[in-house]
Design goal:
Blueprint: E1 2-7, H1 13-27, E2 31-36, E3 54-60, H2 68-74, E4 83-90, H3 98-108, E5 112-120, H4 139-157, H5 174-182, H6 184-187, H7 204-208, E6 214-215, E7 220-221, H8 231-235, H9 247-257, H10 261-265, E8 270-272
Parallel strand pairs: 1-2, 1-3, 3-4, 4-5
Antiparallel strand pairs: 5-8, 6-7
The protein binds flavin mononucleotide (FMN) and iron/sulfur cluster (2 copies).
One iron/sulfur cluster binds next to helix 8.
């Protein structure tokens, strides 16, 4: 069985989980083609689902949904009635309505969604001083990733004929969710900038930016294009790109979400069938 496994990963968590899922699917006998769809250029090519028996998509949760650029990319696909599985990584806070919203898009594009999963992953804003699930994903998450791969493979082969059930919805309209997406700029008040830091002009920031928002030469970001994913900051080999200090918002964030640093550490990765 030939499978296409695509993942978006700005700071590496989703890529790690995708690697474990891909390996386990191969161990089970699948031929897995893995594609990183984080760079803008890799989302610009049209994907033909014809050569593949099934499709797997992995993404981080960005403000309660898959990142906007992933949702837009999924809308370019023709599922041709093929089976599909999805998985997400998240920083210990809100998950719904991510599964429901992504499932809806995949079904509208002609896929049959058979499974989903969520995995803990160090929050992107830890780069600015937060301390959310810092050591995740860990061995416990990878064990769930392997189990998810086994469950998903059984559904892909038809050994298990089930499909993914109804996922938790939100009462909020799409416009409200869109406005929630803008809240991140209340936290990331200073977009990545070089501020005179030494730079080797390696171009990694430009190459890894999923939206073409950053100019390596200027060391500055175009605010209208930036999705606050921090791929540029995480990947810069010189640690030259600076953002605002978010430490003072951390306690407020925990209070707002009615959780503690410890309680989110206790969360476990989950499979949905
Ligand atoms: C803009 C933005 C919004 C995020 N929103 C959420 C969220 O709603 N809930 C959550 O638990 N984590 C949230 N996170 C944290 C990421 O989901 C988490 O760190 C993820 O594992 C990052 O994956 P990556 O390393 O593959 O990019 C957000 C991160 C960013 C950058
Ligand atoms: S990734 Fe860092 S070192 Fe490389 S061009 Fe960008 S800012 Fe300069
Ligand atoms: S410029 Fe913005 S969108 Fe591009 S990598 Fe950096 S944080 Fe992400």
């Amino acid at each position: 069985m030939k499978l296409l496994l695509c993942y978006f990963s700005a700071t590496g968590n989703t890529a790690k989980v995708a690697g474990v899922i891909g390996e386990e699917l191969e161990r089970l006998g699948a031929e897995v083609e893995q594609r990183d769809i984080t760079p803008l250029s890799d989302r610009s090519v049209t994907v033909d689902m014809e050569p593949y028996q099934a499709f797997v998509i992995g993404a981080p949760i960005h403000s309660w949904r898959a990142p906007r650029v992933v949702r837009e990319w999924l809308r370019t696909l023709d599922g041709k009635g093929k089976k599909c599985a999805m998985f997400f990584t998240y920083g210990g806070f809100q998950v719904p309505p991510t599964h429901h919203s992504t499932k809806q898009i995949l079904e509208e594009q002609g896929f049959v969604v058979v499974s989903s999963a969520e995995f803990l992953g160090a929050h992107t804003f830890n780069l600015g001083g937060w301390r959310a699930v810092e050591d995740r994903p860990d061995a416990s998450d990878f064990a769930v990733a392997k189990e998810y791969a086994r469950n998903t493979y059984a559904r892909f082969t038809g050994e298990d004929n089930g499909t993914l059930g109804e996922m938790e919805k939100t009462e909020h309209a799409e416009e409200v969710l869109d406005s929630i997406e803008t809240f991140r700029f209340k936290t990331l008040t200073q977009l990545p900038t070089r501020q005179g830091e030494p730079c080797s002009m390696c171009m990694v920031c430009e190459e890894s930016c999923p939206t073409g928002a950053i100019s390596a030469e200027a060391g500055e970001v175009e605010p209208g294009k930036c999705i606050a994913c921090l791929a540029c900051v995480a990947n810069c080999p010189e640690d030259a790109l600076k953002i605002n200090d978010m430490k003072h918002i951390w306690t407020h964030k925990l209070e707002m979400e009615k959780v503690t640093e410890e309680s989110i550490k206790q969360k476990k990765s989950k499979i949905y069938l």
